[in-house]
């Protein structure tokens, strides 16, 4: 079937739906919902059998839904309506929530239902729930709806035919709805208020006398009681604020009232005030654990972004882990993101973004090099959440990559203003994927699911479990590997391959060649990278859909099947 995905942005949910539909043989094209004319034009160009809208902020134009079946994904249970469904669900502390796929009609979110799913809510941020529970439920419901559509006989159920539902239409969440009352709210309420606004728009509050939006909040244990709301400690990027019954860590904030303000580590945004606070180790971005001869290095950096300092700290932790008497070391990344490469927010906020980009890429390259050059241990990257750009190649620096089914990789840099990329990808990709696949991966500029990643050599193993069970299975597999009697032989073979590769072409040469191109991206005449980075950080909506995903706008695809056009 020809399926047009109409979306506000090609976000994680849209990418997952795109991949799952393509894997089932559908001809899928994407159009960003920029305005009614562009949408109408896309429909005329692609002539879809079906339109699916996984992530839309505006109504579909009448002339489109009157002529085509348009299926809207609403992140709420049957009967729920409105633009802030998940915000309300988190804020209200709902125990169960859902996703509904309904048909677009005159009234928003009120059309007949094609499919729906429910799930148990986890104590997590809105964006983490969206990337995980909502994405799983929505993908499964969309696939069911598409099957029903292709049967040609299914009639969707009008909302009024559902018994036991309580129709509810709520508007946007106002800042007043989630304003923190430090003297009245308990820790759990404060965490819920901040989580309901994470990552956009943030929870408005006052900090060190400034109006700010707060993000990335966690319960803080073992801190002394203090006046609720007072700032009592710092740890890494975060500061702790006392609550009625404990304290919370707050890792990120953005100044309010300034369109050019960037979401940054709180200790950086308020450097002087934070420096005066007592330092503790409560907020951890890196943590190491060990079991039966296997080391596990976790690095759940906020949004998977790895700035210069983060890379340096991770390299130090990696070296410490290497010094342990283990034979297998597993790089766990974070549960939501394994890594998304350079920290573009920190780069944007620095006085010289070009210089900071240079420092950051060198710091991440140092880490890659240390991983590639590890000979005494088998190193595994275990990818539970998504990974993008340099984060994918950092993962590939390990001997094996184990990937959770459902995670998505974006193994390309070019969408960031034609960035050439480093992280030793020119060595790692041909070595693990082969030259042909390496070319395919870098040229396609498309997201990739676990099966495709394995078939192209970006992953070695696909682990088909839920996010909650991923670590347990990784542990089981890693412990078995450490027990394997062939491990010593594998380590010898690994050292021999590294020595052979080094003799053929030193790693330092790959790195120098990549960095020469990166230098041009950062310091050269072409400002594309700086513009793309700035647009990304300030969330400037795209003015057109890239032809890599808008196949109906790619003249090469007009007469060719998908695989041929992408070759
Ligand atoms: N630096 C800083 N912030 C980053 C980031 C990075 N490298 N990658 C992602 N983020 C942030 C986003 O700004 C967003 O922030 P929010 O909390 O304010 O909403 C959050 O992480 C989630 O990212 P989002 O883009 O919404 O997630 P997605 O799953 O839809 O898309 C990617 C994932 C990887 C495709 C996309 O985030 C991306 O292109 N990132 C940039 C990767 C890159 O070019 N890195 C630099 C070169 S190595």
Order of strands across the widest beta sheet?
2-1-3-4-6-7
State the low-pLDDT regions, or none.
559-567
Which percent range describes the beta-strand content? 15-25%
Please give the CATH architecture of the largest domain.
Alpha-Beta Complex
Q: Hetero groups bound?
A: coenzyme A
CATH homologous superfamily label of the largest domain: 2-enoyl-CoA Hydratase, Chain A, domain 1
pLDDT averaged residue by residue: 95
Number of helices: 20
Structural class: alpha/beta
Domain module tally:
3
CATH topology of the largest domain: 2-enoyl-CoA Hydratase, Chain A, domain 1
Largest sheet: 6 strands, mixed
Q: For the CA atoms, what is the radius of gyration?
A: 24 Å
Q: What is the count of β-strands?
A: 23
* Global morphology: globular
User: Briefly, what CATH class of the largest domain?
Assistant: Alpha Beta
State the helical fraction: 25-40%
Distance between the termini: 21 Å
